[in-house]
Input
Amino acid sequence: MTVRIATRRSALAKWQAHHVSALLVGLEPGLDVQLLELMTRGDRILDVPLSEVGGKGLFVKEIEDALLRGDAQIAVHSMKDLPAAEPDGLVIAAVPPREDPRDALVSHGKRLEELPKGAKVGTASLRRSAQLQALRPDLKIETIRGNVATRLRKIDEGFDAVVLAHAGLKRLGLADKVVQVFSTEEMLPAVAQGALAIEARRDDAETLRRLLPLEDRITRIQIEAERGFLRKLQGGCQVPIAGHAEVKGDQVWLRGLVANLDGTVILRGERTGSASEAARIGEALAEELIARGAGEILAAIEKGPGLTAPKR
Output
């Protein structure tokens, strides 16, 4: 039996696909697993900030199209790249155990509070940028694009520090480069950061059965709460939205955040409830933040540069 996994071509994406491949072969020794490596729109457009490219699914559409055509049976994504709404015909068939969801700072040995005034810090994320500016308004935040290795090289090209997902650095064996891991109180992670999504066709019963043992209950509850929050806000990876859920017994605790671009307005909230209602808890928290002005902040960002939401 041959199973094809559709994936992006980056080193991190291929690590993730090989990780899932190894899990599958561990369950079915002798299974032939092959990778179908694809370029997405987000991979091709590297000279423009993600926030200006527009559209959802920048890093997944071509992969999902291959899945729908039958070119592959499985797709492996970074969960945070997936739009909050799943396309017709596809399903997140399994969610493996989550890696550390926090953000990490890489620099020449200095923590954030030790960086000089006006230090140049690079990030690919508006969410990180807004929270960094809230922590250190004096910093010069610049957008950087490219794979993990490309972003790390910025430290030798005039940047004082860069901020990336801790999960990606750990998966690529680069955790030793991390100077500081931000607590979730300092910097709330992106929705579903550190989690993998294993996607399959909804009508492919054999593949769904094969993937079932890879499911992690705790991670599924976390991402349902976080993605419920994102879905209600109608946001994606191009806007400053953060969400992080923790599961304790049969309860889920969700914290969420919406910020304007310069971090001068940050709306925070939290909800606790039954893990069985995780998605609804996320939606309820989003509704609360919308009532407090999150909709205005996000609408102003979508309208383009020069427009900011009213301060509250």
User: Anything to note?
Assistant: Confidence is low (pLDDT under 50) at residues 305-312. The chain is about 35% helix and 25% strand.
